[in-house]
Amino acid sequence: MSIKSTILGFPRMGSDRQLKKLVEGFWANKITEQDLIEGSKKLRAEHWALQNQYGLTQVPVGDFSYYDQVLDAAFTVGIIPERYQQLDIAGTQAYFAMARGLQDKSINVDVPSLEMKKWFDTNYHFMVPEISDEQRFTLHSTKVVEEFKEARALGYSARPVILGPVSLLALSKPAKGSSSKPLSHLASLVPVYVELLGQLAAAGAEWVQVDEPILSLDLDATTYQPAFEQTFAEFGKVSGLKFLLTSYFDRLGDNLAWAATLPVHGIHLDLVRGEADLEAALATIPKSKIISAGLINGRNIWKANLNKQLQVLNKVIAVRGADNVWVNSSCSLLHVPHSLKPEVGHLDDETLGWLSFAEEKIEEVTVLAAAAVDSTTVQTQLQSNAEKVASRQTSERITRPAVQQRLAALDRSFYTRKAPFTERQQLQRAALKLPIFPTTTIGSFPQTAEVRKARAQFRKGALSKDQYSEFLDAETRKCIEWQDQAGLDVLVHGEFERTDMVEFFGEHLEGFVFTKKGWVQSYGSRCVKPPVIYGDVSRPHAMTVDVAKFAQSCSPSKPVKGMLTGPVTILKWSFVRDDQPLSQTAGQIA
To answer: Quick one: pLDDT at residue 412?
Structure first.
């Protein structure tokens, strides 16, 4: 008996954000395009070696991107709006123009980028393709074919990953001045995909992962079922290929009944967010199809309860047979940091034991697969996992009775304002004496090179706390004076003391920890380091009050706003504990 193990995708930035440094170096003309190509090739090889080291049966290829996987898919099939085609650039330069726009005063060029949107309900952002009425699709790039050949040459069993044509069009928007719906172009797009698949087959691919994440949404079956049937009927004409249809971030729901009938060879189930589908899926998906069981959470950073997930896996195997089951991540691991190794010595051992980043999640996948065959071969790993999971459930650091009691004591009257808006408005007008249309700014002023330098010196000990505070006060005073001179009515202090609008507050609250290199990609080369909310949240001391008082003292005649990041934003921009409802954690922050 054998069970295949794999993941849907891997973080592309690298253990020390090597890709960020490469692409930004290329943008700044500090490295050549060939340097970018070779550096990226080396990074991909390192990632495949890591996955192979932990024993994955297959490594995904094509999940790597200089900027965004949706942009890659659009570029591959020639969805390049006219404004970029008119520029005298091609290849990587044209790709980055779509991603970032292109401004060059020397040649009088000012072209905006594509629109950017959030990738479903994650904190990743994708570039929105634009489809014109006259759109003509061509195989413009064979990136995924070349990366597949790279992996094969290094000796890895590789599975190409492509964004499916239905999701690509569903995530697109009509170009300005166009009236046709993007999905109406499906019939002319699919042949280009078939051409690409033919090249993958010729290169030796056996399986192709076709990501169709819109299957996790509520879809109109009368529109989408024929679209998917048409697509995979054409795909099936490429001899020698097997297709793994993947969706993630939620259950298939009502889409399951017809998705199960599509002519594919395997279907992926997100059994973290879509576990409710399992019974129906086992009954509905034909036994001739592989079930890819997404049991390891690709969205959060907590160690999986392997014994619990093993029970789910064994249930699937009992119905389908081991040879027809793959163990997988729930979604791509793009949404979690690279590895816990840099956190050793930075985070305490107990907290480290609760966490699992991309590298550790690969190991969880392979341990699960091995345990389903013979649990005695991984008994040590299973026992260690059980101890760490139990530690998190019983640690006194997790639950603070005073916080729980305070929140439980609030009745509904606490959530209702004491006075109606009209009454509050009159009181505010009388107190603030503002003009009818007061002017202000959102809050944060630019973090200048001087501000970043002073912060770095303070962290290194080159500036004392008092010296750093004096510097921040001086910057705040300058900011207040500038706004006053500019004629603004409600001022802000500039937030020079804050590194990040979420991190700053988390550092002043109990229940948060911060990683050293827990970076995840937000968009392009932009990476963020989300706080980790591990336990009940409380505020042990005042925060922002001293800064607000000083800022107001710099402006005797005009009000200065206090600046707070809202509780739900803090919640959504963090890795959040998964052992209580989100509403309860949000309430604690509030």
So the answer is: 87
Report the interhelical angle of 18-27 vs 91-100 (nearest 10°).
Answer: 100
Please give the structure tokens belonging to residue 381.
């790993």
326 with 266: CB under 8 angstroms? yes
d(CA 216, CA 251): 6
Contacts for 381-386 with beta carbons within 8 Å, 24 or more apart?
381/306, 382/306, 382/307, 382/310, 385/303, 385/304, 385/305, 385/306, 385/307, 386/306, 386/307
pLDDT category of residue 500 using cuts at 50, 70 and 90 = confident
**pLDDT band, very low/low/confident/very high, at 499 (cuts 50, 70, 90):** confident
Distance CA 292, CA 277 (A): 13
Distances (CA, A) of 124 to 66, 162, 460, 526: 14, 18, 32, 10
| Rounded CA separation 456/259 (Å) | 53
Question: What's 250's DSSP letter?
Answer: S
Give the integer Cα–Cα distance in Å for 117 and 171.
10
C-alpha span between 14 and 527 (Å, rounded): 11
pLDDT band at 279 (very low <50, low <70, confident <90, very high): very high
Phi then psi for 67, rounded to 5 degrees? -140, -55
Interacting residues of 131 by C-beta distance below 8 A, sequence separation 6+: 79, 169, 172, 173, 174, 175, 178, 180, 182, 185
Which region holds residue 586: left if phi is over 0, alpha if psi is between -120 and 50, else beta? alpha
Backbone angles phi, psi at 174, to 5 degrees: -65, 140
Query: Tell me, what DSSP letter sits at residue 376?
Result: G
Pairing relationship of beta strands 510-513 and 532-538 according to DSSP bridges: antiparallel
**Number of other residues whose CB lies within 10 A of the CB of residue 484:** 15
529: alpha, beta or left? (left if phi > 0; alpha if psi -120 to 50): beta
Contact 99, 524 (CB under 8 A): yes
Predicted pLDDT of residue 443: 83
